[in-house]
Amino acid sequence: MPFILDTSPSPSPSAIEPSPTTLRRQEHHESDVVIVGAGILGTSLAITLARQGRSVILLEKSLKEPDRIVGELLQPGGVQALEKLGLRECLEGIDAIRVKGYEVIYYGVAVEIPYPANAAGDDVEKARIAASVGEGIAPARTVKRPEGRSFHHGRFIQQLRSAAMREENISLIETTVTDTIKNGWTGQVLGVEAENPKAGKEDVYFGQLTVLADGYASRFRKEFITHAPVSKSKFYGLELIDADLPRPMHGHVVLGDGAPVLLYQIGTHETRALVDVPEGTPTASHANGGVKAHLRTVVLPSLPKCVQSSFERALDDGKLRSMPNSWLPPSTQQVPGMVLLGDAMNMRHPLTGGGMTVAFNDVLLLRDLLHPSVVPDLGNSNLVKQQMRKFHWRRKHLTSVINILAQALYSLFAANDPNLRALQLGCFRYFQRGGSCIDGPVGLLAGIIRQPLVLFYHFFAVALLAMWLLLAKSPVWRLPLTVVETVGVFCNACVVIFPFIFSEMRS
User: What does DSSP assign to residue 13?
Assistant: First the structure.
């Protein structure tokens, strides 16, 4: 038998008869929902559906604590979604670090970018002001800034899984899913096949709805969607010990001659360093000593002095890991009985740390769209497909912003031609202006501002500022040529952002 984890809410489970749905899951492997992948989206969705009374089988190939170098920063919009899902306690007891914003360091010059105060209209603040006015008291204006959290990815996952195990409507099973089971006449997905190497046997699991959320390396993606992930770079990760960051409780983006470097604390003593290395980087070639030589000779000197010693120690330890940075636009699925979600369906460059924020907000949306009062029977494939079409378009208020912003910012921050470098400088100078020039962009990045037009406005404001900076420093005799260059900068800005906008508009 596979390893099955069912936890009763009672301290003495032996004294209570299992419910019929529990017996159905354990003995017959049948449920309302089968979810493949007990990661961020799969586990939180399982808990959410179980709390609505659905019977859930949650399958995961390994229940050991994951050890990854991404999925470690949860933006304020993700923290808010986690609270709405009733899973806020999963951030406790894992040595999570408060995150107040970012610091961007451009060739040694730094600018702080805090999360915006009272962004998107804080409901609690509004209620407090209304109550004060009702009592005849002049309300004192407070500056309330949202916060994110950073942490060890594996610790957070284990907290989510522990929460799932406490739900009586969930069976968490350690097994490797190998294939889907389909109706030969209709093509409807009925469940999945799985194998347990430890037990040396195969199993099948049936559900009215099968959710495939098996991550960025999904084995089912090719079967159900036409898009393939595009990866043009990798993040190489180091864990720094007792690093002295320039601005504690902030994520750091270091920009220089090479691709961007991210620095953020993930524990009391641990700091993650992520170095983007695009394909074909000459200084990272085998002939030049490989990636480690690139990190030592190119990246290390570009880091803030206070970080260099801990970075070098981590590099000497040799614990260097990598992960591809992928782009996969979202798509609707029309296969009856099945939905593909999470990184299996939609990915963006992890530069902006938006993946988990997208996942938790997707679960929030699905909580309402698949609520038993809306979809009483998940076996009604036509109704489920109708709700998933709504899901595809409604999620775009947030996900299109995060997807486009991640890809556009990476294009600027990894600039490799003069026009993109002009846009990169324009972006930094825009941040230096402060006020709405940082509140808007970081509000979008944080998952708080969910208006694609705001992203469009700030991106082209950056482009116009970059054009002005070129004109302002140009000698009079060179102005005609500079005007041509500014046109090139604007065209490059369009080339950067419009393909991603079009990809979000597709169904």
Answer: G
User: For residues 147 and 115, what is the distance between their CA atoms, to the nearest angstrom?
Assistant: 7
* Pairing state between β 201-212 and 30-36: parallel
| Cβ contact 285:305 at 8 Å | no
3-state secondary structure of 355: helix
**Cα 441 from Cα 420, distance rounded (Å):** 18
| Collapsed DSSP state (helix, strand, coil) of residue 57 | strand
Report yes or no on whether pTM surpasses 0.85.
Answer: yes
Give the H or E element holding residue 171.
Answer: strand 170-174
**316 and 191 Cβ atoms separated by less than 8 Å:** no
Mean pLDDT per 10-residue segment, the chain (507 residues):
49 63 91 98 98 97 94 97 97 98 97 84 43 48 83 98 97 96 94 85 94 95 91 96 97 94 98 96 94 96 97 93 94 91 96 96 98 97 95 94 96 93 97 96 96 96 97 93 96 96 84
For 415, phi then psi, to 5°, come to -55, 130
The Cα–Cα gap between 391 and 401 comes to: 16
Residue carrying the six token digits 């099955």: 4
d(CA 479, CA 225): 50
Which contiguous run of DSSP H or E holds residue 20?
helix 20-28
Rounded-to-integer distance, Cα 55 and Cα 31, Å: 5
